[in-house]
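Researcher: I'm preparing a figure for a lab meeting and need a structural model of a single chain. I don't have an experimental structure, so a prediction will have to do for now. The sequence is pasted below. Please return the structure as tokens so I can convert it later.
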Amino acid sequence: MHRSLSWLAATLIGGALAVAPAAAGSFSIVSMQYSMDYMVPHIHYEGDVDIGDVERLTEVYDMFVRCRIECAATEGSPTAVLTMNSPGGNYGTGLMLADFLRQNHIATMVERGMGCYSACAFAWLGGSGFATNEYVGTYIDRMIEPGGILGFHAPFRDEESLIAALSERSATEIMGESRNALALMIREVVKWNVDPEILHWMASMGPNETYDIVGADDYYLLRAALPPSSTASWVQDVPEAVKNACVRLLAHYERTDPFLLRDRITSTFEYDIAEDAFGDPLHGYRLSDRLFDVAFCAVTDQSMQTGDYEIGLYLHLSQATPMMSFFNRQQGWSSAGIGGNPTKRIMQRGAMNHFFLPLGQTVDSLDLPGEMDIMTRRFFTLFPPDFATLPAEFQTVSTTRTSRVSRSGDIWVFEQVGGSSLVQTAIAHQATGVTYTTDAANEHGFIRNGTYANGAAFSWFGLSGDGSTTGTTVIRMELVKPDGALPTQNDLARLAILGCGITFAGSALTCN
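Model: Understood. Here is the structure written out token by token.
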């Protein structure tokens, strides 16, 4: 298995992990729709994990995330997505951030080119969503893009801090602190539904090393997910993909690391190996002829045609019911094995594509079409159009390649630019938990004005260019009153006037 080691200088100070002083962590709002699959606010975390980060995140979250679980659909959604880029820092703060993310149903993401290490990685574990489905509720929602790195290691002291500590306390006390810190790490790993097999890799890392989550086997052990993308974009060879999924299902059944079972399947892929209880042909791999061993692992014929693979472990060729199953659902819930609480089992919303990938290789090294599918679903465009022209009173707060945040008093403007999918996705989005006072769309764009459940007002619209550009923009104007005060009629009038003053590539709202 690929077990990547990377830099990380950290010391155990008073039971908490800390790194050398660097840029303090900050939280910033990026946009109001993260991707096609996550039509929720995008918050970014940058810098060291430090005391006070929970309060800083709370401030940004309360200001800009106006729709909470009342807006969650039956099929599930987080209230926001937090992208993370941090070398680590205060261990205790990282654990508190994880709790905050779980309590507020915020998904976590490490994007390509970003790294989330040590205390940041423990915070990432709290990534969650919420479904109104009575059988689901809170579920795990934590993702890593190919090319992003999540890095763990066990608590430790460097030589300098150890010498300083020994001058103040006995060796027995120091050993007790280290033992308690390690015990806390184990408790947290179990709490966040991480496979116990991962503990060996975390604990074996030296003071300047991390166990990096970069391979599909690591994703499996950490219960991490690739961002939403089609299964077909990851599966190039169906029999090989089924074999990889069978190995991981066997690992779950035997409670071991899938990499240790990489040579378990030696047979060739066999069609019509058996039939299931409904008469559907099963195709797969013979495993053993011994009594009480798993006899074969197979996929149903019908599911193999759709990409919503149903793969099972069977005790006997004559037994039509699998003893353990893996269900891949591109729309809905994917799962492996059984269990009740979604936060304590292998289960995620959407396709579990890492199950099909080769063992012992980094996901990024595979160079599969799934990587571009992920970017496309994040509204990636090679040549983004220029941002809209705003009324002069707006001041720019922050800018990325395809998003811009501006402000004028209590009115905030969140812009995104991209291709046609940007506007089309917004038009197709069926929001819950909001009331629209205006809802109209045509070939040039759309507009939706309305209020949240707490009475806060917004204006959301999309514009296509006048023909001189192929780009589009989606703009969200939010009226953010101090202390959550309700908007006045003057506030609403000003919101409308400023919206009418926005132009994009020759296009604008039609205002009376």
